[in-house]
Design goal:
Rossmann fold, alpha/beta, 14 helices, 43% helix
């Protein structure tokens, strides 16, 4: 998001310098600290980053300079750092649950949705391009080394069965976090005996939250593959991802788009797909994922799972469409593929909402006003 943020701040009349000093740690790096402190001596009103970096917060705290961070990942483990309560911090979260947690820990935290660069996407969003895809999905299936739950060795079968059970239940629920309730302290203690988590003494002990996010990610892995398979049985679907699951490699209804560059490829795919799909990472408990604003800002039509904060900005069936079960999703795809007029009206109103509510210019204006007040 760096280029979009920098371009927008410059267009708003601000003097912006991008620091690209490499660092080796989120917390301590003598070379980085020395170089960054020297940079700050040039005189700045504020340091800004996407996501939170404890090492930068601690430097700004000692130098007496404001540090604003806009959180775009959830979970964002550096937020478990004790440094979040530094007086210099202004932390902006797209997920209200995360924001409330930070406030309870003494942080200066604010709720702010993620944005989109309307100016950059205007030519794509307002074009009359013909549709190349009926249904599209851009995103990860998370078939990688970061699926920590799968790497836990010697897990008791009973615990594995319990995790599988609550995962299956969570698959049927949208807008409610069963895992946070069902994976209680006793199960956290049991898992902690075989899966050590130690972020370091500079961090709060948040094993329970970390384990629950492992399970939430596992739910996301299962959900995306199973739903994609069910869609591919009935509809043609184009998928842009870093690695397609083996179960989908040879399906005749699946068109493989490969990796899609965020700036060059994604907006055109969003605009030229009749239906774009979003499945939020289950660790995002309430907020609106970036994918939703990306699609709307590019002038695309989207069907997404329900998230609690969507009701603050959207009306289902008016400027967005959300589903609350896999079966309903299939019915919605079928309906909107055959009701072009309704789909186009929702697409247009969705783009108007993106322009009015989620533009970087508006949201960065709110951020700067809150940070400097």
């Amino acid at each position: 998001m760096k280029d979009d943020v920098v371009d927008t701040l410059l267009s708003m009349g601000h003097d912006v310098k991008v620091d690209q000093t490499k660092r080796t740690s989120f917390d301590k790096d003598e070379h980085f600290e020395e170089a960054f402190r020297k940079r700050l001596k040039e005189g700045y009103d504020m340091v800004f980053t996407m996501n939170y970096f404890p090492i930068i917060s601690n430097i700004c705290e000692s130098e007496g300079i404001l540090y604003s961070s806009w959180i775009s990942d959830c979970p964002n483990l550096p937020l478990y750092s004790r440094s979040v309560s530094n007086a210099c911090n202004r932390i902006f979260c797209f997920d209200k649950n995360e924001c409330d947690d930070l406030i309870s820990r003494g942080a200066n935290a604010y709720s702010l949705p993620l944005g989109v660069n309307i100016e950059r996407l205007k030519s794509v969003a307002t074009s009359e391009n013909e549709y190349l895809h009926d249904v599209s999905f851009l995103g990860s299936f998370y078939k990688n080394s970061y699926n920590h739950l799968e790497q836990v060795a010697n897990m008791p079968q009973r615990l594995r069965g319990y995790i599988d059970g609550i995962s299956r239940c969570q698959l049927r629920l949208y807008g409610y976090d069963l895992i946070g309730e069902a994976f209680d302290a006793a199960h956290v203690e049991e898992l902690s005996r075989i899966a050590l988590v130690d972020l370091g003494e500079q961090y709060e002990k948040r094993n329970a939250d970390i384990y629950r996010d492992w399970i939430r990610k596992n739910v996301t892995v299962i959900e995306r593959e199973e739903i994609m398979l069910s869609i591919a049985k009935r509809f043609k679907i184009s998928i842009a991802t870093d690695k397609l699951p083996e179960s989908m490699e040879h399906l005749s209804n699946v068109k493989k788009l490969g990796y899609a560059d965020y700036y060059k490829d994604m907006p055109a795919i969003f605009r030229r797909s009749k239906i774009n799909l979003n499945f939020s990472l289950r660790s995002i408990l309430s907020g609106i994922p970036l994918r939703v604003t990306d699609v709307l800002g590019a002038g695309g039509f989207i069907i997404t799972n329900f998230q609690p904060e969507m009701s603050l900005y959207f009306e289902n069936g008016d400027n967005i469409v959300w589903f609350e079960s896999p079966e309903q999703l299939l019915d919605l795809i079928d309906y909107y593929l055959t009701h072009d007029t309704e789909r186009e009206a929702i697409r247009t109103r969705g783009y108007e909402t993106a322009c009015e509510v989620f533009s970087y210019r508006r949201l960065l204006g709110i951020l700067l006003d809150a940070a400097m007040s």
